[in-house]
Each structure stands twice: as structure tokens, then as C-alpha cells.
């Protein structure tokens, strides 16, 4: 139970199945088809995963639902030893990009998160994400919501969704807007897209972290560039294996990227969908690559260095990591 720092976690994607089932029952929404006999989420391939994900998140409809979701997710994080997490939140799902509605959702999420932190639970920060396949116009509205609510909770901006839809440069305006507002930047790339998709988010969006980025391994010149520039990868091995980006843990690129000097970190992405937790990720990496506590401590330190939070919070979390 090492203390862990998680940088890549979708709030809706982290919704525990039991929580979603409870909410569906309260609202009389029938989503029974998305669960297996053991009560976990079940899907056959990436496209089915998106359908199941959509059905599961359809029960989240109000700020209060998001407050409850935040508490449920942080409980799961704490159970895995996570002491600091960053979560992707989106005005697209919280109020349909209406600034007034977004503020209400955000208020609920933030209040729930601070109550958990005050009681000694994990610290949480939010990264507003635009959704790539919703297109650049909607991303602008999302970026404006992010810029209006930058603060001690919303500290970053990013892009998620279908990596094969559109080009990063289409979203430059949104990223410039977020940067000017003081937000730190990350982007999903190099999961479904190849090495060029990573080059594009670095050059066109100016991000300092890349979500996934694991397919950089297909281009060793890019790997060297990532290492030299100190770009941090938010690697989610269990997610990649569940969705078939790599066939198994031993074939995952994280170990080779690390060996070549890239600053890698470990996260869970949408943990219950991929039947994983941070603890499980650490165990599987230990099994696959013989990573020891020293290696995991280094990974957590890298993640904390790359975290989008203030210096006081970093210092507080650093103490927890050092104590272990
Ligand atoms: Zn993701």
C-alpha cells in the first residue's frame, strides 16, 4: 500500500458499478444490460465499451449526482492508497457547456472533494476536458467555461474523446484560451493515434503532458525527444490492455519508455470499466517488469512533480511520499 499519485482519471469513467446501479434504480432507468453476473461492467470491444460507458453515465444528471459520484470515486482512490488525484471533468456532460450550470456542477464536485480532503482523504484537482469528436466549436465553449472557473480546484485543460476525429490544430484556439487563463495543459494522444498524433499535440497545442502517449515507442526519435524535453506521459497500462492497444502486460511499452528516459507515470483512466485499480496496476507492473518499491516511489515522485497543483499542496503530498 504505497502512497500513489494519479494524474489520468475520468470522473464519470471512475463511477463504481454499484453506485451507478443505485442511481439508476432511484431514477427508474433500466441499464441492467451493461453489467455481468458479478455486477461489473461488461463489453466486447472498444465500440461496445463506448456504448456501455454512455449508458452508465446517463444516470448522472444533476450537480448532486456529481457530488455523490465524487465521494464514491475518492473512496475507491483512497482504498488503493491514492493520496493525490487529478480528474477530467467536462462542461459538456455537466450542464451542456452553459456557464451558469457548469458553475453549479463544479461547486458540487469541488465541495465534495474538499470535504473528503479535510477528513484526511485524497486531494483532488480538476482538469476541464473538451471532447474531440464534438468538434472545435463546442471545444471553444468548453474552454471558455474552463477559463471562467480557473482556480484552486480547476487547474488544467485537456482534450479527450475519439483521437481519430479531426486534427489537434483545429483546437488551438481553445488551448490558447485555456493557457492565457493560467491553466496547465495536457492532451490524449498516442493511444489510438500513432507517433504523429503525439508530435501534433506537442507542436499544435503546446501541452506539457500527454494522456497515454504509449505509441511513441513506434518512433525512437520521438522517444528521445520526449525524454529530452521532459514531457510527462500519463500511462494507463490496464486500460491499454483491456482495449487491445497492447496484447498483454509484458508487451506494454511503459517499461521501455522508462528505460529510455521518458518521464512515465501510472494511472487507471476509467478503472471499473477495465476491472482495475491503482493497486492492481502496481501489482501487474511488478509482475510484468519486476518493478520494486524504489521504482514505484520514483514513478509517484514524477507524477507529483508533473501535477497541476499549487506548491503548498505539492509540498504536503511530497511529505506523505517521503514518509513511506
Ligand atoms: Zn483517458
TrEMBL record:
What's the cofactor? Zn(2+)
Which Pfam families does the protein's record reference? A_deaminase
- Has UniProt tagged this entry with the keyword Nuclease? no
- GO: which molecular function terms? deaminase activity; hydrolase activity, acting on carbon-nitrogen (but not peptide) bonds, in cyclic amidines; metal ion binding
- Domain named Adenosine deaminase: residues: 3-321
Q: Which residues form a coiled coil?
A: none
SUPFAM superfamilies membership? Metallo-dependent hydrolases (SSF51556)
Tell me the keywords, alphabetical order.
Hydrolase, Metal-binding, Zinc
Q: Which family does it belong to?
A: Belongs to the metallo-dependent hydrolases superfamily. Adenosine and AMP deaminases family.
Q: What is this protein called?
A: Adenosine deaminase
Source organism of this protein record: Gemmobacter megaterium
Q: What is the lineage of its organism?
A: Bacteria, Pseudomonadati, Pseudomonadota, Alphaproteobacteria, Rhodobacterales
Amino acid at each position: 500500500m504505497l502512497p500513489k499519485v494519479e494524474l489520468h482519471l475520468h470522473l464519470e469513467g471512475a463511477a463504481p458499478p454499484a453506485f451507478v446501479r443505485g442511481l439508476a434504480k432511484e431514477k427508474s432507468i433500466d441499464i441492467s444490460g451493461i453489467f455481468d453476473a458479478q455486477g461489473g461492467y461488461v463489453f466486447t470491444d472498444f465500440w461496445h465499451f463506448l456504448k456501455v460507458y454512455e449508458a452508465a453515465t446517463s444516470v448522472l444528471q444533476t450537480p448532486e449526482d456529481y457530488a455523490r459520484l465524487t465521494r464514491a470515486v475518492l473512496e475507491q482512490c483512497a482504498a488503493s492508497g491514492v493520496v493525490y488525484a487529478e480528474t477530467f471533468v467536462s462542461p459538456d456532460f455537466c450542464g451542456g457547456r452553459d456557464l451558469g450550470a457548469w458553475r453549479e456542477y463544479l461547486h458540487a464536485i469541488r465541495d465534495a472533494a474538499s470535504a473528503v480532503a479535510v477528513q484526511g482523504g485524497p486531494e483532488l484537482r480538476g482538469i476541464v476536458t473538451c471532447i474531440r469528436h464534438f468538434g472545435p466549436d463546442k471545444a471553444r465553449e468548453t474552454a471558455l467555461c474552463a477559463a471562467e472557473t480557473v482556480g484552486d480546484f480547476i487547474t488544467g485543460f485537456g482534450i479527450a474523446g475519439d483521437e481519430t476525429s479531426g486534427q489537434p490544430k483545429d483546437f488551438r484556439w481553445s488551448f490558447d484560451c485555456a493557457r492565457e487563463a493560467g491553466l496547465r495543459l495536457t492532451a490524449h494522444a498516442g493511444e489510438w493515434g500513432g507517433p504523429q498524433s503525439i508530435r501534433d499535440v506537442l507542436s499544435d497545442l503546446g501541452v506539457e503532458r500527454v494522456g497515454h502517449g504509449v505509441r511513441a515507442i513506434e518512433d525512437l526519435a520521438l522517444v528521445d525527444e520526449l525524454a529530452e524535453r521532459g514531457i510527462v506521459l500519463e500511462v494507463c497500462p490496464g486500460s491499454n490492455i483491456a482495449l487491445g492497444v497492447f496484447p498483454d502486460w509484458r508487451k506494454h511499452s511503459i517499461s521501455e519508455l522508462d528505460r529510455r528516459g521518458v518521464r512515465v507515470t501510472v494511472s487507471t483512466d476509467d478503472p471499473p470499466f477495465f476491472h482495475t485499480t491503482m493497486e492492481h496496476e502496481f501489482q501487474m507492473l511488478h509482475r510484468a517488469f519486476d518493478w520494486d518499491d524504489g521504482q514505484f516511489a520514483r514513478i509517484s515522485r514524477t507524477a507529483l512533480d508533473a501535477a497541476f497543483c499549487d506548491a503548498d499542496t505539492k509540498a504536503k503530498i511530497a511529505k506523505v511520499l517521503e514518509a513511506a
